[in-house]
């Protein structure tokens, strides 16, 4: 049957194979990213591309409210679709761009979610049986499809959602990150007042080195590697590096109320990830995306080769 497949089927199989390969490759890249970027603390995080783990917290002032469920939250995404024959047409959708806070045991970091790839474990879909869009007269809440189905949805878009929720004229989908959720983030970290931090670091490092110089015996005992009684250039640079690390630890223990930490999308195009899944759960999701994507690519690629071999 494959050997005599029509041309449209060959083209469709080639497109599906390309999509599967892209899904597997994207899962692989995100898996390596999560594994390779080291975890930092808010107070002592270096300026640049970092991984942070903490708790999502709402800021004061006007709250962010998910429009379909009226749920106060840190972030939301929603979509309203209307049945058009056997298909669904998007009537309206939106994503919040308000800032919120990632908090760990060392401090707060303001998160700007614009441009982020966000995965939430709080996602639900339901259909409207009457009353029209916004009427919400009767809602049929969809049952959970389970973790495996969620992984397939990640790879194949919203196919399962389409098959499972077509029981009304309107279909609603909403995902949120709630206040108090665990928050995993990878993005561009920056601090207002970083120049003051660097100046303080130099001052404390100099003070530590001056203190060591007043005790030359201790200084030689710690850093005179060849035991010739004199610190050469290499040994002195090692002493400076150790002093700098001690100064950084000391500075990290001091209050930093005057410094504002932020996390946002990197300007160089690297991934900006946010999720209320734990790191292991996020890794498991991307690993399944990688496995299923590459597995489908091999299966479809083999079928495509059979189709093309007879034509060649």
Q: What topology emerges from the helices and strands here?
A:
Elements: H1 7-36, E1 39-40, E2 48-57, E3 64-66, E4 71-73, E5 75-84, E6 87-95, E7 100-104, E8 107-111, E9 117-119, E10 122-128, E11 139-141, H2 147-156, H3 159-164, E12 170-177, E13 182-192, H4 194-213, H5 216-223, H6 233-252, E14 260-264, E15 273-275, H7 279-311
Parallel strand pairs: 1-2, 8-14, 9-15
Antiparallel strand pairs: 2-7, 2-13, 3-4, 5-6, 5-12, 7-8, 10-11, 10-12, 13-14, 13-15
Helix pairs in contact: 1-7, 2-7, 4-6
What structural category arises from helix and sheet content?
Answer: alpha+beta
Question: What is the succession of H and E elements?
Answer: HEEEEEEEEEEEHHEEHHHEEH
Binned strand content: 25-35%
Shape: flat
Q: Residue share in helices?
A: 40-55%
Tell me the major beta sheet: 5 strands, mixed, barrel
Continuous helix count: 7
| Strand order in the sheet with the most strands | 2-7-8-14-13
Find the count of extended strands (DSSP E, 2+ residues): 15
Q: Which ranges are low-confidence, i.e. pLDDT below 50, for 5 or more consecutive residues?
A: 130-166
Round the Cα radius of gyration to an integer and report it. Answer: 27 Å
Terminal CA distance reads 16 Å
How confident is the prediction overall: mean pLDDT?
78
């Amino acid at each position: 049957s494959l050997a005599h497949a029509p041309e449209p089927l060959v083209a469709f199989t080639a497109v599906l194979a390309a999509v599967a390969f892209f899904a597997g490759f994207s899962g692989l890249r995100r898996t390596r990213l999560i594994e390779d970027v080291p975890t930092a603390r808010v107070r002592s995080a270096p300026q640049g591309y970092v991984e942070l783990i903490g708790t999502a917290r709402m800021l004061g002032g006007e709250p962010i409210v998910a429009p379909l469920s009226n749920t106060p939250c840190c972030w939301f995404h929603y979509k309203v679709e209307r049945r058009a024959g056997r298909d669904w047409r998007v009537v309206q959708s939106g994503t919040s761009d308000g800032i919120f806070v990632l908090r760990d045991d060392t401090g707060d970091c303001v998160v700007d979610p614009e441009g982020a790839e966000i995965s939430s474990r709080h996602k639900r879909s339901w259909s409207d049986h009457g009353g029209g869009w916004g009427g919400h007269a009767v809602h049929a809440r969809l049952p959970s499809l389970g973790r495996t189905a969620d992984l397939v949805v990640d790879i194949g878009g919203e196919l399962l959602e389409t098959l499972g929720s077509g029981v009304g004229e309107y279909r609603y989908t909403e995902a949120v990150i709630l206040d108090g959720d665990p928050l995993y983030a990878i993005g561009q970290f920056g601090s207002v007042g970083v120049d003051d931090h660097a100046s303080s670091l130099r001052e404390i490092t100099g003070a530590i080195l001056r203190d060591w110089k007043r005790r030359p015996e201790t200084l030689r005992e710690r850093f005179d590697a060849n035991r010739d009684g004199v610190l050469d250039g290499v040994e002195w640079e090692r002493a400076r590096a150790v002093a700098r690390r001690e100064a950084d630890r000391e500075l990290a223990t001091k209050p930093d109320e005057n410094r504002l930490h932020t996390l946002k999308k990197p300007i160089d195009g690297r991934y900006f990830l946010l999720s209320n899944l734990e790191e292991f759960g996020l890794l498991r999701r991307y690993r399944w995306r990688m496995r299923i994507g590459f597995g489908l690519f091999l299966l479809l690629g083999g079928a495509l080769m059979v189709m093309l071999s007879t034509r060649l």
